[in-house]
Records
---
Amino acid sequence: MRNPLLFALPIIAVAPWLLPPFYVTLANYVALASIVVLGLILLGGAGGLMSFGQAAFVGIGAYATGYLTLNYGASPWLALLVGLAVTAAMALLLGVLTLRLTGHYLPIGTLAWGISFYYVFANLPGFGGHDGLSGIPAISAFGYDLDGKTTFFYLNWVVVVLAMVSISNILDSRIGRAIRSGGRATPMAEAMGVNTTGVGLTIFIFSALLACLSGWLYAHFLHFVNPTAFNLTISIEYFFMAVIGGLSSIWGAIIGAAFYIVSKQWLQTLIPALTGRVGHFDVIIFGFVVMFMLHYARQGLAPSILGLFGKRAHFHHSVAEAERLPQRERAEPVTEMLKIENARKNFGGLAAVDDISFNVKAGEIVALIGPNGAGKTTMFNLITGVLPMTSGVVSFRGKRIDNMHSREVLRLGIARTFQHTLLRPHLTVLENVALGAHTRGSTGLIKAALRLDRREEAQLLYEAKVQLERVGLAHHSNTLADSLPLGQQRLVEIARALASDPHLLLLDEPAAGLRYEEKVVLAKLCRELRAEGVTLLLVEHDMEFVMNLVDRVVVMDFGVKIAEGTPEAVQADPAVIEAYLGGVNE
Amino acid sequence: MDFQIFFFLLEDGIANGAIYALLAVTMVLVFTTTRILFVAQGEFVTFSALTFASLQIGLVPQIIWLLGLLAVIAAAIEIYRAVSDKDFKSIPGTVGLYLVAPFAVIALTIWIAPLGAPMLVQAAVSVAIVTLLGPLVYRIAFQPVSSGSVRLLFVIAIALHFVFQGFGLLFFGAEGFRVDPMIDASFEVGSLIIKAQAILIVGTLALFTALLYVFFGYTIPGKALRATAVNRVGARIVGIKPDLAGKLAFLLTAFIGGVSGVLIVSSTTIYYDSGLLIGLKSVLGAISGGMVSYPAAIIGSIGVGILEGFGAFWASAFTEAIVFSAFIPVLLWLSLRSTPNEEGHEL
């Protein structure tokens, strides 16, 4: 069975009639927790971000509805909107403060937020202190009161299923590929035009909203809220559920929540019976379980359980022909494509790029060569905005682009590959290439969740497939990127760069690691691209490959340009010979 | 607020801040050498404080069984490794290293507990127990994944906090403990009263800062830790074992945590679950220096202590919320200073 959801739906339908009443209640708690944990999995498994403040967002949802319905007789639906708005504002603040910083500040910021929330709501007048609020009314819809554990069982699980479907839709979309490519500030994703901070912020807010929704349901299910249910320990428990279930799959949410809540229930009756002492000793066992899993089973329980259903761990796309995405007008062959004037980059006292000037005309293939450490890759990083320039001017089609952000550089039409291939190992080859077309689409999270992105998505995937065919790897579309050999990974990088429809393509050592036949194919591809009007600038050490392919060569040594000209002229240049072979002046 | 109250709050704040500063220094030490953001550090403090309090009332602190358990687990792991590597010669040394010291301390604890030993001896035993926990915890929880991501190590630290807090409740119960100050005296300077305990705490901070300065600047193990902090791979190439550096860092951390515990329990009531807040307040101090700068961590932590003291005076119910809201300006400051993408870690 391909989709375990089809298997799960009938179970949900009959479960409240078959389960003992106590387990129906427990299943409600599992559902409420699953909603929160789904957000954590979107955040952590896909986006590489962690939050230890989710329980506080649950608390906002619960307290907003408790306070407004009890004190102002407000409709729970209105209170839900208020809760969601407050949650979004809080998540936005935390995200803006922490997401620009390296990995560990979001978890720390959320930890602090989780603690503050507890102390504020336990002490704020009007919120009932440590006793909390009780007597919260039922939700009514279409004249019916939604109440009782069976009604809530359906309500909660419908929300779980909707959340799962929407997250699964999100992950398999343009924005989903951006999420899965990092979520944090990663140079590769930024160079593909992904606003990684914006993507991280979006999924953090989305996960907080899911938590808030869970809190709203919780308050109306129990008719009671108190601050203990939203303290830091609970946030950590949600995180543990995600780790135990497995961050790599959305099914990890339900599996983790069910495992945690049911075994916690058992432990809390078993341990006091065995030891004769009362207390939350189950935390010791769960702490050990989580540590053990992080040491030996980082994938969590989900992959092995899903394996029973024969479900593939990654997305599988069969790409149909679609309308091509609009392409840029190619420039006339004489136009100056790239102009570099007196570029300089200092790393401390070292000038990695020292006063370099050269230009590249439209439709040319130019090679940037030089011994190791000459500053070639640094030059690429300056052109593409990955590194800020110390001084100098870079113009692209007459427009200054020095110190522009790498995302904007890509949008203008400069795409690149990386010396050390930067493919996302857990994405398929096709998805990696489609990431290159990120800036040619526009649909965001909400449209993706509702599947309103299908036309554009088909175009993006078709574009990726066309580019894969170009580099001869279409048959590997659904292979995970890290299972390809290095040479083919380089070709995938080229396809990814081409998917952005660039005017200028920068290739950083494209032939390294390629076999002879592959080099012939690569040279042919470069010539085809030139014929189509794409301009190429490449860094390469394979002189045979370079000299037979390019129109002009720029030679760098120790950050300085030492020669420029046709391949023949450069090969005869004494300065170049000295740089490569050493001087003969002893 | 008159000047006397102001001074009283300031003195209290600085004394508490000095404890956070001690811990923040160890946070930075552990983070730079092992990349672990060790939020469970606060539990070393509570363990030591509650052990000290138990010894004062003549009870055998049950935490010694945790020490024994961890020692046996660590020794078992090492023996298993030695056997699978067919490295039988190393077994006696390993067993000695992992078992002798912990069980000697356990025996000592059981012996002195009912004797009503002098306070300093009880303090020393409490610190010794906790100090030995440090390297054992590193060996069992972190060493197997020491090359993992910062995120992974952080989650393990959180899981450890969970385990420790559970053990804290099991061993010491839910009641809080407080002991008499080690030096119950005070001086009057004009109209101001200076408590000897505050001087002891600030003096300890000054002493440890000086000792750590000498340790890092002039001793081989200290330089090895610094080298590991700068570049793990490079340090390994020149022969520094990262795992040894990790254990050393945890030994120091646990030791300083232990000392902080016996100091803090005479000014604050400590519960089994007080550790997380203490630990996070030192994290707050430590991140003021971006988790790399020792002086900034000390200054930041003392600031946290002062903020806490005045917060408790003005709005005691909201003290914790006020202190943790201080994360916002600190994070904002760090965020404005940072330049993302510069030297991308992937490239």
---
Amino acid sequence: MIVTVAWLVLLTAGFAWECYCRLHPGRWASLATVSSWLWQRRAGRVFLVAVWAFVGWHFFSRYTVPR
Amino acid sequence: MTPRPSKTARLGGCLPTRRFAAFALISAAYAWYVTGLRPFTNSAYEAVFAAPAILLALGLLSPAGRRTPRDPLTLRGVAPWVALAAAAGCLEAIGLALGGRSPVVPTLSTVVDHALGWHATRFVLFFGWLEVGTRPLHGPWRRLSPRTSSPGAPQTGPSL
């Protein structure tokens, strides 16, 4: 239960930090900035698409509903 | 004095257009179809992989590579993301070391599996996944259309 809460805290922190970085640009890089930077390189694009595809494959075609 | 960008531009980067609405509608229909398929089946694998295949093809052809980033990246600037990723990596590694299905230390996928029991939540998560993945393509391809591009407009990188 504690680790489940830790996961939720991490996900919420990531979302909140992304919002903060987008609303106060300059000092910290948002995930969008990092992705833009990667997207400008062909290898970076392949990496981003690969990560995104793995997430989709893992979560949406190989999920097991807990009983 | 440089005008401060609007909150909409800072948060989203692209304003909705009719084409974007049509794209969202098609994505929603596709998401509903895919999330109705049974997991671990060939049709589920093919349907989920169709989107990355199309994105990869469009991404490699996209003109975004010629643009300059909005903000230069520094190690200090990405440090919070590295810390978050390290924390997530540690939790995931411990969960996997305990077999991956431990109720005490669940992995991220075990936590997410709880939300995937309903078609509606699967649809929302899949639609979000599709939106995140196709986000970099909205800006560069839209800016190329004669209706929206302007020679004096500032060139910014795509936002994910």
